Amino acid sequence: MAPHLSPSDVHGADLPDWRIFPATLATVVHTGTMITGVEFVSRIMQVAEEHNHHPDVALSYPRVVVTLTSHDVGAVTERDVAMARAITTIAEEMELAMDLADFKVLEIAIDAMDLDAVRPFWEAVLGYVPGSRPEDLVDPLGLRPLVWFQQMDVPRPERNSVHLDVHVPEDEAGARVAAALAAGGRLVDGGAAPSFWVLADAEGNEACVCTWRSEPDPGGA
Question: In sequence order, what are the residues at sequence separation of 6 or more whose Cβ sits closer than 8 angstroms to the Cβ of residue 107?
Fold first, then answer.
């Protein structure tokens, strides 16, 4: 089993066209046409077979979204870093631009006092399955947002029990927060920035804008 890499390890791995998100590396490659996109994906698959490590690829017009994770450990490892470098080389050879300005990862967080009592309901109603962490539920097809459960020690009736976590590249986070505030939102708590900002809409519904710095070391205690 490959060792986990911490978010700070990945951030320092000299991958300027990739960003670290929860347990994944991601990039967006602008292919311009579907034919070019198919060629790019085909070349990725050839390299993936050589590495015996397969990325998740979403082909659409006019871009390809690539995410990398080591599914056997539920985290990013050196295998993902090596694969990211190989994919970057393919993009450079095909003269394709890589840009994550519009990329984000959405998660749904549910506060609960008794996780064991609450989790089975959401697993059943969503048709989700347990994730790599005990607090996670995931879409078995990998198409819908992860749901995670936040342990609460005391009830917090002043806030909703469900909020959204929006993970964005660190260099996009400030602009995303500013846009939300300009759109009528308010800053609930900025004390953890630049890891995350807690925002709320005009009626108090909360969302967190998160960066890679909010992610714990998956190999830690």
Answer: 22, 145, 146, 147, 148, 164, 165, 167
Of 123, 116, 199, 196, the closest CA to residue 151 belongs to 116
Tokens of 135: 């607090």
Q: How far apart are CA 49 and CA 217, in angstroms?
A: 29
Percentages of the chain per state (helix, strand, coil), in multiples of 5: 30, 30, 40
Residues whose CB falls within 8 Å of the CB of residue 174, separated by 6 or more in sequence, listed in order:
none
Residue 65: CB partners within 8 Å, gap ≥ 6?
A: 26, 27, 28, 29, 57, 58, 103
Both tokens of 160, joined, read: 């909703």
CB of 32 within 8 A of CB of 26?
Answer: no
Domains observed in the chain: 7-98 (3.30.1360.20), 105-214 (3.10.180.10)
Residue pointed to by tokens 């929006």: 166
The string of pLDDT tens digits covering residues 104-159 is 899 999 999 999 999 999 999 999 999 888 889 999 998 899 999 999 888 877 77
Number of neighbouring beta carbons within 10 Å of residue 172? 17
What number of other Cβ atoms are within 10 A of residue 116's Cβ? Answer: 9
Looking at residue 5, its pLDDT comes to: 86
Enter the pTM of the model: 0.83
- Cα(31)–Cα(39) distance, integer angstroms: 9
Written as six digits, the tokens of 97 are 């631009």
Phi-psi region of 208 (alpha: psi -120 to 50; beta: other; left: phi over 0): beta
